[in-house]
UniProtKB/TrEMBL annotation:
<protein>
    <recommendedName>
        <fullName>Protein-arginine rhamnosyltransferase</fullName>
    </recommendedName>
</protein>
<keyword id="KW-0251">Elongation factor</keyword>
<comment type="similarity">
    <text>Belongs to the glycosyltransferase 104 family.</text>
</comment>
<dbReference type="Pfam" id="PF10093">
    <property type="entry name" value="EarP"/>
</dbReference>
<keyword id="KW-0328">Glycosyltransferase</keyword>
<dbReference type="GO" id="GO:0003746">
    <property type="term" value="F:translation elongation factor activity"/>
</dbReference>
<comment type="function">
    <text>Protein-arginine rhamnosyltransferase that catalyzes the transfer of a single rhamnose to elongation factor P (EF-P) on 'Lys-32', a modification required for EF-P-dependent rescue of polyproline stalled ribosomes.</text>
</comment>
<keyword id="KW-0648">Protein biosynthesis</keyword>
<dbReference type="InterPro" id="IPR016633">
    <property type="entry name" value="EarP"/>
</dbReference>
<keyword id="KW-0808">Transferase</keyword>
Length: 377
């Protein structure tokens, strides 16, 4: 019999946690023919990225994945052969007890948040004995061969290339979203947390010599965009023009359409973890809004990634890139940093392609998880 997998997800920050676990579950089913149950405590966050899903259903099948509502009162159920607790979420006590009661306990993995910090390599794959006799293993995604890799479907880069080579496919996709940019306009996507420096950037775009069409999917940054425009409330489909900048509000789209959106743009501002990884696979210059932590602990994670990502850039381009990312995440003048980065645009474009190609030479996260289970057996 084939192994069964349970993935548990507690929705903490709107879409990041469910975005990663839903993408992982789909890939395990599609590419490894694994029976996956995805347990989610808030399906309202799941529905926007999986059109057709039912937020009230206790159980539903979506794209081959058995999606379950994580009930407040746990109903006894046989644990899977592999159990993944995403991002240190606490599994139901009754489920853990059922794991312990099995003749052969399942492989219990704690799928951690993505980080480029040096200590991750030393902790990846380490076991953590539990008081009840079970053993939990820390599994870290990452950017080096000593980590678990990044989520990447086997056909992802080939699909991106086919899309890029078809002007008709790009035009049809944008038109489906109601986007009709000027011929010479630079297309930018913006998916971010609230940011007091957004206005500086938008001012720079509006005053620029090149037309810019900014696509803003529904999300937390919308209020800041509206404040800059002097509009209290923005709705999906709204289009506003100020100077050289056109701002358009998009609906929240499925994961596959979000990939196409990233591929369609010349620059992508993203946030959190799932969109952060997908922007890297898009092979476009990008800007990451890292999730804010107490006492600015997130700055260390930002710097750790930049240490990896800027490798191969010239000194001037590297400095401009770092200044832009720091400005966005450290409450500095983003508009000024953006203008400085424009002087290195061709190099930043090529670097983004090269980075994606280098990361694609390593095993992807789903494959690494499957191989880890095989080795454990």
């Amino acid at each position: 019999m084939k192994a069964t997998w349970d993935i548990f997800c507690t929705v903490v920050d709107n879409y990041g946690d469910i975005g990663v676990t839903w993408r992982l579950a789909r890939q395990l089913v599609d590419e490894h023919e694994i029976a996956v149950r995805l347990w989610v405590d808030d399906l309202n966050a799941f529905v926007p990225m999986c059109p057709g899903a039912d937020a009230a259903a206790l159980q539903q099948w979506q794209q081959g994945v058995d999606v379950r509502q994580w009930p407040a009162e746990w109903v006894p159920i046989e644990p899977a052969d592999v159990v993944i607790g995403a991002f240190a979420c606490q599994l139901p006590a009754h489920y853990v007890e059922a794991m312990r009661a099995r003749a052969k306990p399942p492989l219990w993995l704690n799928l951690e948040y993505l980080s480029a910090e040096h200590w991750v390599e030393g902790c990846h794959g380490l076991p953590s004995p539990q008081a009840n006799g079970l053993r939990k293993v820390f599994f870290f995604p990452g950017f080096t061969e000593k980590t678990g890799g990044l989520l990447r479907e086997a056909t992802l880069l080939a699909r991106r290339q086919a899309f890029e080579q078809s002007a008709e496919a790009r035009q049809a996709f944008l038109q489906r979203l109601g986007v009709y940019p000027e011929v010479q306009a630079r297309l930018i996507s913006l998916f971010a947390y609230e940011n007091t420096q957004l206005g500086n950037w938008l001012d720079a775009l509006a005053a620029g010599s090149q037309p810019t069409h900014l696509l803003v999917p529904q999300g937390r940054i919308l209020a800041d965009v509206g404040s800059w425009l002097g509009q209290a409330r923005l709705e999906v489909g709204d289009v506003r023009v100020r100077g050289a900048l056109t701002v358009q509000i998009l609906p929240f789209v499925s994961q596959d359409d979000y990939d196409r959106l990233l591929w369609s743009c010349d620059f992508n501002a993203v946030r959190g973890e799932d969109s952060f990884v997908r922007a890297q696979w898009a092979g476009r210059p990008m800007l990451w809004h890292i999730y804010v932590q107490d006492e600015n602990a997130h700055w260390e994670k930002l710097e750790a990634f930049l240490e990896h990502y800027r490798h191969g850039l010239s000194a001037d381009a590297s400095a401009a890139l770092v200044a832009l990312w720091r400005a966005w995440n450290m409450d500095r003048d983003v508009g000024q940093a953006w203008q400085a980065a424009q002087q290195h645009w061709p190099e930043l474009q090529q670097h983004a392609r090269d980075w994606a190609a280098r990361q694609a030479t390593r095993p992807d996260l789903a494959m690494a998880l499957v191989q880890f289970y095989r080795n454990w057996l």
